[in-house]
Each structure stands twice: as C-alpha cells, then as structure tokens.
Design goal:
40% of the residues lie in helices and 16% in strands. The protein has 15 helices and 18 strands. A hairpin with a 5-residue loop joins strand 3 and strand 4. The longest helix has 21 residues.
Length: 446
Amino acid sequence: MMFVLGEYPIQGRGAAEIAASVERAVGAGALEPGQPLPPMRELATTLGVNPNTVAAAYRTLRERGVIETAGRRGSRVRPRPATTGREVLRSDVPDGVRDVSGGSPDPALLPRLADAFAQAAAWSDREPVLYGHAPVEPELARLARAALDADGVPDGPVMVASGSLDAIERVLTAHLRPGDTVAVEDPGWGSLLDLIPALGLRPVPVGLDEEGPLPDAVRAALRGGARALIVTDRAQNPTGAVITAARARALRAVLREHPETLLVEDDHGHGIVDAPLHPLAGTTRAWAFVRSVAKAWGPDLRLAVLTGDTRTADLVRGRQRLGPGWVSLLLQRAVTVLWRDGAVDARAVARAYGVRRDTLIGALATHGVPAYGRSGLNVWIPVPDETGAVARLLHAGWAVAPGARFRLTSPPGIRVTVSTLGPAEAARLAAEIARAAGPGPSRSYA
C-alpha cells in the first residue's frame, strides 16, 4: 500500500521504511518545506500498519530535523529541513558574475603547505603512527595550550577534531538528547543552524549586536529551558560581531545564574582577528572551547583543537575512539609545523581583512546603507527584501549570500564576503547594493 501526498507516494511497512520514504522525498524536493503530512491514523490506515508504527516514523523524522509537529495542526516538513540544508539557498553563480558569497579566506593570505607536509611526512617516517598511538600530537597540544593560556582560556585537556562543526557536534551529542533545546545566535552560522535540528535538537534564537549575544536574550532562552548555549567569540558569521570585555562580564553574570548550562564557544576567527579574546569558558560546569585552523591556515586542513572541563573531555574522547579513533597525526604534525614556524602573521592578516571590511562599509555609508562587520571575512547588510536584493545584484553581476541561510527569526539581510574584494570593486558593489536594497534608516540585526 501507499499514500499519495501531492505527486509523491509515501511507502513502507515499518517505521524505518516510512521515515526513509519521507526523507528521500524531502531531499529530492518532492515534498517541499512547510508541506503538511497526513495525520498519523490516516496514513496508518492507508498503509495498513499500526498507528504506533507511523508515530514512531514521525518521531524519527522529528529527531532527524526533517519534520516538525505543532499540536493539533499536525506535522509538516520543516521550513528548512536538515535533509536539504541551507546550502540549497545558495545562488548559482553564472559565468561572468563576481562571487562574494562564499565565506572563504583569501588564498593569497594562506600559508604554503608543501614544506609543512614534507616535514610532517619525514616526521612520520621517523616516528610512524600505529594503532594505540596517542590521539593528539604532544607538540601540537603544547602549542595549542600555550595559545589558549595566553588568551585566558581555563585549563583543560586538549583534543583534536575534524574542524569546528565536528567538534561542536561531538560536544552536543556528548551532553544532550533529542528534544533538548540549544540557544544559538540569530543571525548565525548556517551550518550550525542545520546541524542542531539534524541532531534532533531544537534551536532557540538569541539576538546579538556588534558586541555579541544580548544578555537579556540569553537569559530568556536559558530561563525558557535551553540546556546549551553556543556563542562565537570573534568574527561572528555572518555579522562580524566581537564579544567585548563588558559584554563578556554581562554574559558571565547570566551564565552564573544557570550553572548547569552547557557552554560551547567557537573561536574560528583565531589567526585572522586582532580583537582581544574575552572567553566565557569556566563559568558553567560543562563547557567547551573550539579553535579552528580553517580561516587562517586553510579550510582543507579540516582541523580544530578544543578543550573543556574534564567530564566533557572524557565524553568526547570516548566517543571519538569508537568512531574515527583520531584525526590524522600526519595532518596534526603539518599544522604543528605551520604553528611552530609562524607561517601566518595574524596581525597582518587581520589588518588586510579589516581594510577590506572598512572600505566596503564606508562605501555603503556614502549611500546611506548601514552595514556591520567589526571582524572577520564578512559584512552583514540589513535589507527590507533580501530575495529581491539578491536577484537584482545577481542581474547586476554580483553574487551575494541571502540572509535566509543565516537566520531563524531575525530581520532580512545579505552577507558579503570581503576576503578578496579590492577598493575599486567595493565602491562599485556598494553602489549596486544601494540600488538593489535602497537606502534607509539604520536597522539592527538583533
């Protein structure tokens, strides 16, 4: 038996088969975001199965972030289901269009890798890595811990993951269970906003300004039952916000009211930001601090170091042992060489990106268009109609990132990656943004 929903037949006899049928349809676009699903009893009757079987399938789909249930209004495909992801919101970039949507660093500011990997390979020839080897290269851990100490991050074991998102996922799954709520920045990192529902967790939006998450918004989320809070210390994506000393004090005060909160800090801007770090780590009992090498040393290195309280470290390391085991020691040794040799001049890189951000923001200001970007690679520009703005800019020869990739409930906007944007280009782009979005009063992105 099957149930035809629109043009798509839902099929299956078991809960796993029914859930897989719906998930395939969502991934293929046959079931669209927001589309209602049949009532459980109706679908059970049509498929000839027990209603409990359909209930189990729907529960699986909710935990995987594919559907949502709103009481008597029934179940429907999530507006942004984890099956599809926010990358479907990325505009195709035709030939001849200047792409400033991607969020990648400037390749010219990344270090050369050949020598580092040659040294790492020779190192591994001298000291082969076999099963049972320590999962973290001691010299990498020493360098990482020294940098964390210098920035005031509390002491804790150093672990290595395959990038920031992998580290955050491991911390969340170590502590939380499907149905738990997580407070996240809004607007925020699109990949993280996809990950949370994919883990069966529920995101709670927290507004922010140029100094980071708003304390009252964090307090409201935690009082409302959020079990975890994820914050970006510097180079917040997409707004460039930086947590200042005053904001850090205010957020620590809020967290002290909720000591059982799992706190996760993402410092992916390390190496490209000259703003000082004001960590929140250690304010709650369970915490993790993540530092990626992607933006300063290269996205393809796929490595992040993280530290945290002893229990969190034990949980993360234990689960990692049952999966990949460890992140390649060859890769860890190459990063060690890059760090040891000072392959990146963080001040010079931060200065270069700062000039590019400031140039675009200044050019937009001459047209009466407010924009934000205190640090990092991106500038966030509030617009009244982001779909129209993105389309008009594409027609004018510019591909920008639609704000929908980064938002839950915050107002519309567009994101421009300035990493390779020259001064003359910035002036032309600002003029086109003004035409596409129109000047207007300053609009907060909180």
